[in-house]
Amino acid sequence: MTTVSGNLATPSSTPASKIVLATAVVKSWKSPIALGIFALVSIVLFGVFGRDGTSSFRLSSETDFVQLPVLALPTRAAGIVLSILLVLLAAYATWLAYRARRVNLWLIVVFALIFMVGFLSWASAGHTMPVTGLLVGSVGLSVPLIFGALGGVISERVGVVNVAIEGQLLAGAFVSALVASATRQPFLGLAAAMVAGALVSSVLAAFSIKYLVDQVIVGVVLNVLVTGLTNFLYSTVLSPANETLNNPGILPRIPIPVLSGIPIIGPVLFRQTIIIYIMYVAVIAVWYGLFHTKWGLRLRSSGEHPQAADTVGINVNRTRFWNVSLAGAIAGLGGAYFTLGSIGGFSKEMTAGAGFIALAAVIFGRWDPIKATFAALLFGFATNLQSVLAIIGSPVPSEFMLMLPYIVTIVAVAGLVGQVRGPAAAGKPYVKS
Amino acid sequence: MSDSQIPTQGPVPTPGTVQGEQPAPAAEQPSRFSGVLREIASGNALISVLAVVLALVAGAVLIAVTDPGVHAASAYFFGRPLDTVNAVWTAVSGAYTALFQGSIYNFGRPTFAAGIKPFTETLTFATPLIAAGLGVALAFRVGLFNIGGRGQMLIAAAAAGWVGFSFDLPWGVHLIVALVVGIVGGALWGGIVGLLKARTGAHEVIVTIMLNYVAFYLLAYMLRTPGLLQAPGSSNPKSPAMKPTAVFPHILGPSYNLTLGFILVIIATIWVWYLLSRSSLGFKFRAIGENPHAALTAGINVKNMYVYAMLISGALVGLAGANQVQASITSGFGSGIDAGIGFDAITVALLGRSRPWGVFVAGILFGAFKAGGFTMQASQNVPIDIVLVVQSLIVLFIAAPPLVRAVFRLPAPTVTPRVAPAKISGKKAVVTK
Amino acid sequence: MKLELRGITKRFGALVANDHIDLTVEPGEIHCLLGENGAGKSTLMNVLYGLYQADDGEILLDDVVQRFSGPGDAMAAGIGMVHQHFMLIPVFTVAENVMLGHEKTRAGGRLDIAAAREQVRAISSRFGFDIDPDALVDDLPVGVQQRVEIIKALSRDAKVLVFDEPTAVLTPQETDELMVIMRQLKEAGTSIVFITHKLREVREVADRITVIRLGKVVGQASPTATNTELASLMVGRAVELTVHKDPAKPGNADLVVKNLSVIDHRGQLVVNNVSFEVHAGEILAIAGVQGNGQTELTEAIMGLQPRVTGSIMLDGNELRKASVRTVLDAGVGFVPEDRSEDGLIAEFTIAENLMLDRSNGEPFVKAGTLQLGTLAEFAEKTIVEFDIRAQGIGTHAGKLSGGNQQKVVLARELSRSLRLFVAAQPTRGLDVGSIEFVHTRIIATRDAGTPVLVVSTELDEVVALADRIAVMYRGGIVGIVPGTTPRSVLGLMMAGELPSTPEVAA
């Protein structure tokens, strides 16, 4: 929804070197409308259909230095107050749009947070919400998504659309379980997972770069191939010898001294397995590498304007091949989290679409490693919220909570967050013409 | 224009018209025979056959490597190498014989009528594959990648199933109403994608992937909720059985499983052929698929066409979904009713090169793999997942002809293999196939 | 540095793009490479720059034979290139673009952006450029982007600088400034290869001229040669630079455009409050440097632009909010600027392309079904009438030469009964024979009493065709002048200056 009000200025005759065209005033009503709808939902849900009772939030776990008190809110009153806040924010967004100003991202983030608190207190009326547990579980569910999304970001930034994240995760999960069980060396399992992920993505790279096959097609087919292979090998190799070949055990949690004792943050971030610590490093390294190093500059140039990269002596196809392989290695680590980090064994199709959610996180995070990480965390949170609510007795059917990440992604790509623009040359093979 | 009198120094150019056409290639004409051979060797048909062979060889390797008999024999390989060879032969030939006997003709049966039964099974398995494959192929031709087959099938199956078990209608009417409602369900689920693409520019790959999960959870919710799709008196997430009036009749008598569905997909194939090759709508579809900019400039409403294409694509996939509940599994369905056909359809469409009859043949081939795969699993203990591996390898090989040629040391095709010299005023040459 | 090419031959399949080309560029010389579109100039330069490998021949720098396996080698040897389509990454800053490929790094592998900024500033100040190293390239006007390309080449110590059609996107004023820069570079000892097909520029700046045609060197000339001499050398025969045309007999103002504005996706007014009329039986040419709103103007008329204000009246009917289909049905014929992108479907046959904008009803569609017989008959007739050289009507459009492709587009549009004909860049990239054909057809359309709107960035074409000329600059119309207006006045108008006696047509 955009309205345009007429032309404002006529071109002035400044020197020819700088062409500044007159601009029209464009008012975008998308954000106010969306926020308005959510504000309305909150009034109806928290106010009209408000639930009576008290919503409690448990903020501390036993190992914290300081025990924070349980936060108790009267459900209906809290809901009404938060609804009013939401209405005010929506009104502010409307005013901004009316003045033809952009609605800032922070406003939407604050809006979303308030809505979420409102929803949580509404859903947990009469119960106690274990906030720390909720967040710990969210981080856990996000780990493979984050690794997958990092792989996706690298691969798409270098110009190869990566629909095969699912396959890379699955390959990583299978191989890490096998290798870690057979060698009794979890770290060898991690390394093997990286190799497996890299192998899958190097097939993607080879077919799309050397044979110029459509990248989405290769990605989709690779997912099927890896699913078939791991299923087949699981039935023929792993399950007959479950004790020796599919019993890698779970990596131990390593609490980081001091930091792990901080309430909420400690258990969530600093009492985790090695994979999660590797993840922190990976997120920062990918971000730093992409935007502040020679590697990243060349990588992004290959994905934005491969011909320009070629004319300054960058071997585009080689850059693409190795970085797509690297992307697969990172995604493979995410696969290892399924087996070594959380479940302790491989089972058929255990990634269950996580690769696709990771892909969604890449787009939702606009091809930025940090934003994609937050998007993945959001999706992990939604999934975990569903299971927590199921335990305390949620008023919302769990299936609808599970649907949430997917619907949010559809809404996102359908333009609520503006026109998403990926790397210009992603999906296009580079052929010297 | 000033006219200084300095003569040009080069040779005086001779007048003559500039050739509009580029000069015809002056390559020497090979003999007719070798030309034909070359054409066959570099043609698509041969590549397709070789791709299947190559994929079957890869499958054979997998079977041999994981076969317990081979393992046992290879333990004393250096003592009696022939044993290993024999074991490999036994495993592979056993598996592929079972595959053949389960899908084409069983020589072990006394009569032709009994011997040919596996082939009718193949056609039965092929039925939904062809229908869904046509849907994906049609979208391909419009330049859309419909990965949403799974979601469209689930919705279609739920819709057709709901009509099938909850209404009492006369024989014939009931069947048709259920079928139509199923097809409409699939069409609408696909149409959402077209609508979002047309109105907001949301990429259909992302939206279809996300809608798959939305459909899955939606169906899961309905299946466990009494009063929606759950069978009364049951606590399983499963629907009641279809009423007999809504079930497709068997067309070859009760001893064969082949149903009306197969006739329907033959009609669908003819219809899609007409639509794409002979209709105005199909002309517009193809124009957009090849070059949306030119189509737009020529006054074709690209946005509407995206919606129509996704509606039709979803409808065809919906036919597959309806077939699932009206023919394949009539005793009540769960949330896995799509049986992976939505994804198989992509490989079928790719193998059939998005041509209606190509999809038909590809569907039968993959149907044969499925029918034979179950026999192979039952009699030889080779997990049916091998079929997924072989299928995806076939598609990968077909998508990369240079790879197949390199493996078989075939000559590279002549410069323009794809476009046969046009016959002047030949009707066939007027439109692209 | 002295550059010498010896016997360079480059084939693409059966096509010989460069046929034993010899070329010597002395140190500190501006050497013009003159040739028509498709003569093989760019191929030759891509060979020189290492983007293509020559099939035969050798490249010498200061009499040493070079082996370039890629642009990196060429750059290392001291060859720089300012590409026709800028090789800049739009989402990178100027400094990032300049450093790409020879990045300096600090501890931790961190990019040394500061050094790159300094380099940009240093080179800028040497040539008097005013460029912000931290500006995003996407936000810079084309003239400035070109300077970034020059800085990029100079930052690698290029001793031989190749300019590939550098003036195509520049205003006459910017072109003059570029000439000054070229002379500055020359004085600093850089050898320059200047590729162009514009005769005037050649004569202004070149020290020597080499003319190539159909992939071969056909001669050398000195900058004092006349336009006619250069043109006939370039084209291979005596060229009639203007097409014969009778005086126009203008009728009613069939197309009336009033206060038309087009807003692009960034909210810029790419067409700003434009008003003009086109009469039956006249050609109104829209002149101007590429990118001053002409493309968007024609797209607005065709219904291809989403945000348009003002009014477009054809025969008294408002077309502003109309769909493309409605516009076509109102009798508007359209030759789009980018033939292969918007005009044709390469994978479709000639016949299919001929019915592309008539896929809705009679005569090619009845009851939703294609009438292949009718189509074949029509196509057979049309390829004869429009002299489309192809194996048959079943040939894919993508297999045709540019000239024949354009004839297919023309044939499609002109075989309907038209109320308005809009042709954008109708002869871009065509050989001279095809240009004549297209021009003759456009004039014939005018003479049949149809209002014609031609958009062209080539002044030659504007002058050859126009009965009246509207000059666009930064989205606005600077003035509408008679077709006989001198080029010097048009040139000034293209830079945004009003002529002293504006003769604005009613």
TrEMBL record, chain B:
Signal peptide (from-to): none
Coiled coil start-end: none
InterPro entries listed in its UniProt record: ABC_transp_permease
Gene Ontology CC terms, in alphabetical order: plasma membrane
Localization, UniProt: Cell membrane
Residue stretches of biased makeup (Low complexity): 7-20
Main localization category: membrane
Membrane-topology descriptor: Multi-pass membrane protein
Spans through the membrane: 45-65, 86-105, 125-144, 173-196, 205-223, 256-276, 305-323, 329-350, 357-374, 386-408
Keywords tagged on the record: Cell membrane, Membrane, Transmembrane, Transmembrane helix
Pfam families: BPD_transp_2
Molecular-function GO terms, alphabetical: transmembrane transporter activity
UniProt name for this protein: ABC transporter permease
UniProt source species: Lacisediminihabitans profunda
From TrEMBL, chain C:
Keyword Repeat among UniProt keywords: yes
PANTHER family per the UniProt record, alphabetical: CARBOHYDRATE TRANSPORT ATP-BINDING PROTEIN MG119-RELATED, GUANOSINE IMPORT ATP-BINDING PROTEIN NUPO
Domain ABC transporter, residue spans: 3-239, 255-499
InterPro entries, per database record: AAA+_ATPase, ABC_carbohydrate_import_ATPase, ABC_transporter-like_ATP-bd, ABC_transporter-like_CS, P-loop_NTPase
Chief localization: membrane
Protein name from the UniProt record: ABC transporter ATP-binding protein
Keyword Membrane: yes
Short name of any one Pfam family annotated for the protein: ABC_tran
Keywords for the protein's UniProt record, in alphabetical order: ATP-binding, Cell membrane, Membrane, Nucleotide-binding, Repeat, Translocase, Transport
UniProt cross-references to SMART domains, sorted A to Z: AAA
Record-linked Gene3D superfamilies: P-loop containing nucleotide triphosphate hydrolases
PROSITE patterns, alphabetized: ABC_TRANSPORTER_1, ABC_TRANSPORTER_2
GO MF annotation, one: ATP hydrolysis activity
A GO cellular component annotation in the UniProt record: plasma membrane
Membrane topology: Peripheral membrane protein
Location of the protein in the cell: Cell membrane
